[in-house]
């Protein structure tokens, strides 16, 4: 098998275990979480994307890694990571938090799509060895990033549930309805 074939197989199959893991363990929890907490969890993962600058380090990547791929991938990841960190820092200020959540997800998904495009146009699979130590990033890390961007957009588009009131709890049998009259004092 050629290196290009192996790389392409790795790219495609990188999504399979993450989709299985995400669908079984992560997605059920994210769907039940408060919207802010779910987006904070996703932002935390993406805050590590500063690591993408490694595509610019000689000795970590090969000298012939196409600059058209490396530069955009490095700075796209870096920008996404910084925006995710800013979103985390702004979590208590909704007027700042939500625009930053949208921003890091838009920038992040555009980065990944353009990286796939550059990888195709520049025939990155035939030069996969030039990725050096960064080979694992597109194979293992990027699929999870793409999956969580899609999940973040889905959660953003989903209506926020209205908080239940104390009266609503009593009518629906919520926790407040379980209190005895003496414990309400």
Q: Mind explaining what this structure looks like?
A:
The longest helix is centred in the middle third of the chain and has 28 residues, at 94-121. Helix 3 packs antiparallel against helix 4 (67-89). The chain is mainly alpha-helical. The chain has 7 helices and no strands. Residues 168-185 have low confidence and may be disordered. The protein has helices spanning 3-13, 15-32, 35-46, 67-89, 94-121, 136-157, 166-172.
Which key features would you list for this structure?
185 residues, mainly alpha, 65% helix, 0% strand, globular
Topology:
Elements: H1 3-13, H2 15-32, H3 35-46, H4 67-89, H5 94-121, H6 136-157, H7 166-172
Helix pairs in contact: 1-6, 2-6, 3-4, 3-6, 4-5, 5-6
Shape assignment: globular
- Which class best fits the helix and strand makeup? mainly alpha
Q: From the alpha carbons, calculate the radius of gyration and give it in angstroms.
A: 21 Å
Count the DSSP helices. 7
Instruction: Please trace the helix and strand order, writing H or E for each element.
Output: HHHHHHH
Termini, distance in Å?
Answer: 75 Å
- Fraction of residues in H or I helices: 55-70%
Low-confidence stretches: 168-185
Report the biggest beta sheet as strand number plus sense, adding barrel if it closes. Answer: none
Number of strands: 0
Q: Estimate the strand proportion.
A: under 5%
Mean pLDDT: 90
Please give a quick description of this structure.
It contains 7 helices and no strands. By secondary structure, it is an all-alpha fold. The longest helix has 28 residues, at 94-121.
